[in-house]
């Protein structure tokens, strides 16, 4: 079984070396002095879908799939015809390998809103993927039609820190969330991280979107 945690970075592509290979600055290059030494090299084809297809090993995954392929990354995926400013979701091990930390991530959102988790053949979660949201418990759980439902306030991706857009829903947390990673729910914190199944978020959360707006000043994402 495999579990990969992805972290979201702003990505300003400064070098393109192939159809799927590039290097990006994790901040506006004006803030980094356009320093080529601060570029982060990545192969946008080294993704979970490539690992599932047997093209690479799971420990070779560098980045989440592009949004058009069910992931959260929005730069690339094929150059020269795709986006050069957007979000790049790096696998945690690869993030460490290239010298990035959570301090390099955008700071306008809660860190859990910039995390995603992909499982492969996990005994509890199968091949599911989960995206981090900021959420709040609004009342005790109730049982309805055999489901334990909790009334939750859930913020739009990346909007939890500054009181941005949100909605309220009755959620079956055992069904929709990664209970091993989520920090909010009955008997837990009243407000915090909720990792929601990416395949179910549109059903449960109207306008769930694909991911937070990264970089914050662009029009990508929500």
List the helices and strands and how they pair.
Layout: E1 2-16, E2 21-25, E3 40-43, H1 48-52, E4 85-91, H2 92-97, E5 115-120, E6 129-137, E7 142-144, E8 147-155, E9 166-171, H3 173-176, E10 191-197, H4 201-204
What characteristics describe this protein?
mainly beta, 32% strand, single chain, 2 domains
Can you describe what's shown?
This protein is mainly beta and 222 residues long. It folds into two domains: 2-104, no CATH class; 130-204. Helix content is 9%, strand content 32%. The chain contains four helices and ten strands, in the order E-E-E-H-E-H-E-E-E-E-E-H-E-H. It has helices at residues 48-52, 92-97, 173-176, 201-204; strands at 2-16, 21-25, 40-43, 85-91, 115-120, 129-137, 142-144, 147-155, 166-171, 191-197. Strands 1, 2, 3, 4, 5, 6, 7, 8, 9 and 10 form a ten-stranded antiparallel β-sheet that branches. The two termini are 32 Å apart. The model has no long low-confidence stretch (mean pLDDT 90).
């Amino acid at each position: 079984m495999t579990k990969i945690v992805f972290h979201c970075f702003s990505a300003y592509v400064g070098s393109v070396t192939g159809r799927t290979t590039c290097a990006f600055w994790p901040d506006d290059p004006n803030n980094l002095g356009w320093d080529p030494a601060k570029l982060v090299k990545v192969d946008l084809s080294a993704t979970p879908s490539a690992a599932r297809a047997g093209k690479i090993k799971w420990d070779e995954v560098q980045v989440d799939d592009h949004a058009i392929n069910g992931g959260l990354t929005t730069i690339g995926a094929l150059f020269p015809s795709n986006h050069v400013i957007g979000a790049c979701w790096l696998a945690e091990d690869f993030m460490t390998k290239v010298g990035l930390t959570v301090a390099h991530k955008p700071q306008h959102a809660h860190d859990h809103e910039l995390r995603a988790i992909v499982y492969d053949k996990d005994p509890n979660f199968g091949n599911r993927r989960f995206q981090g949201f900021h959420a709040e418990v609004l009342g005790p759980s109730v049982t309805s039609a055999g489901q334990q439902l909790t009334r939750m306030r859930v913020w739009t991706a990346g909007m939890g820190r500054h009181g941005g857009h949100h909605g309220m829903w009755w959620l079956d947390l055992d069904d929709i969330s990664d209970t091993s990673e989520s920090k909010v729910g009955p008997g837990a914190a009243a407000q915090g991280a909720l990792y929601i199944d990416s395949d179910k978020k549109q059903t449960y959360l109207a306008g769930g979107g694909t991911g937070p707006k990264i970089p914050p000043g662009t029009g990508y994402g929500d």
